Amino acid sequence: MFPERFSNLPPYAFPRLRALLDAHAPGGKVTHMSIGEPKHAFPAWVGDILAAHVHEFAKYPPNDGTPELRAAIAGWIARRYGVSLDPTQVMPLNGTREGLYNAGMALCPETRNGKQPVVLMPNPFYQVYAVSAVSVAAEPVFVNATRDTGHLPDYQSLPAEILDRTALCYICSPANPQGAVADESYWRRLIALAEKHDFQILADECYSDLYRDTAPPGALQVATAMGADPERVVIFHSLSKRSNLPGLRSGFVAGGPETMARVRQLRAYAGAPLPLPIQRVSEKIWADEAHVTENRALYQRKFDMADRIFGNVPGYEPPQAGFFLWLPVGDGEAATLKLWQDTGVRVLPGAYLSRDTNHGNPGEGYIRVALVAPELETERGLTAIRDCLYGQ
Ligand SMILES: Cc1ncc(COP(=O)(O)O)c(C=O)c1O
Prior knowledge:
Structural class: alpha/beta
Bound molecules: pyridoxal-5'-phosphate
Number of helices: 14
Number of strands: 12
Strand content: 5-15%
Largest sheet: 7 strands, mixed
Distance between the termini: 55 Å
Radius of gyration: 21 Å
């Protein structure tokens, strides 16, 4: 009666975390460092714009986005990446998660070179990638992203049999959870590989504005500089992290004309367009950089704090961007439980974000720590983690 295709999905990370911890009392004041929910302030004017447009909840919103919102997004892409797109090449999303999921529906073919298509993804990874692949009856292939590969997947190392069946390839830069950044040469190699084996790159770049000192290069920027097929790269961006508005549910997808025609067609049938007041306010937020600069500065202070606290911990790797620490702890689940029971600090075992492969499970020895809490609370949490797990 019910589909089998999802029967191998592990329970989602957060119910799993609750099952691990909630039968045990916290050993101190509870400090939440498990969920990547931004806590810095969003711009105060967001409420005023919403209020000014509240009457537009009475209307069905335009599926493809208002012309003004699409122009604002195209303007942001031009400023950030120096790439000029026609506004029809961008589409607002209800946050990137649903767009990353639905991209598989819109773009993955039924077969690839006469066989079952493959969808590549990093391991560990943002969990929606795998569900998207399974939903379209593609084979998800998990490619370990470890210290040895600079915490980014080495897709070049895959056998030709896999690459020739590859239809789509997810890549996250800056990476959740490791904070690694794909530099220009990484993008060039990946785009060249995709050109050679004719697959599309789905670049999840929702942490692109949260970095230390240098803005990470983007997939579209590099593909354009290379003169790659305009359909090769599809990018996903969000206001959740950049602007501290995870509850607004607002992001976008952008890509080549044919890609976007397919995304648009599917969304015309099955998409959930952003309510008009949300489109109006999103337009203003994409156009503003002042609040993003402030937000980034707060994360930069937290990165420095983490470096100070963990500087002497063997194996500590300062994140390049994003807002997570990916800490080596031996056994991630045991460390998470110990930390909770001894200190009340709540983190996520790395293995809840990764899968077993023939080359092991790259998340097992790690915990992921979100640097989203206010500064003092973050400092207290990080110090407790160091003292409890590294005995320093
Ligand atoms: C890597 C990554 N991609 C996508 C998302 C989805 O973000 P949103 O749907 O809020 O835009 C998240 C959120 O945590 C994320 O970490």
